[in-house]
Amino acid sequence: MQISNLPRYSPVKVTSGPSSYDQNDLQINQDEPFVVFYNKYLPREPPLSAVLPRYINEGSAASNLVIDDSLTISFQRTIRVPETQEPNNLPPGLGSFPLYNVAEFAHVLPQDMVEKGGLFFAMYQREAMWLRFTSTKQFAIRIY
Length: 144
Known about the structure:
By secondary structure, this protein is mostly beta strands. It has two helices and eight strands; from the N terminus they run ββαββββαββ. A hairpin with a 3-residue loop joins β4 and β5 (71-79).
């Protein structure tokens, strides 16, 4: 479906029945998250692709995740800040966490993690992490 063919405003009826993605009869089930409805109604063509760049060999770590060749996400290592009512200075940056592909470590990871796939990084309890986003175009990102 071409976005240019869509009307500027489209009424959507809330229903207890199944959702309908027909442009002439849009209905969203009362329990369906709006983002799920929207993504089914307007699927992204082509879907986003994520790449975990490899610099050395299989099993080696990457320092960032590249999405659709235009968004880079890096997981920055730092120390935990004391939980007090007082403001704190920014903690020191300690570089990026090394990122690993779950599939490459399937033989040593829990089965439920292997089934989900994706990437992982190891982190000590005393450490903290912040995300760095670098992009050449606009993205909406949901952290959960």
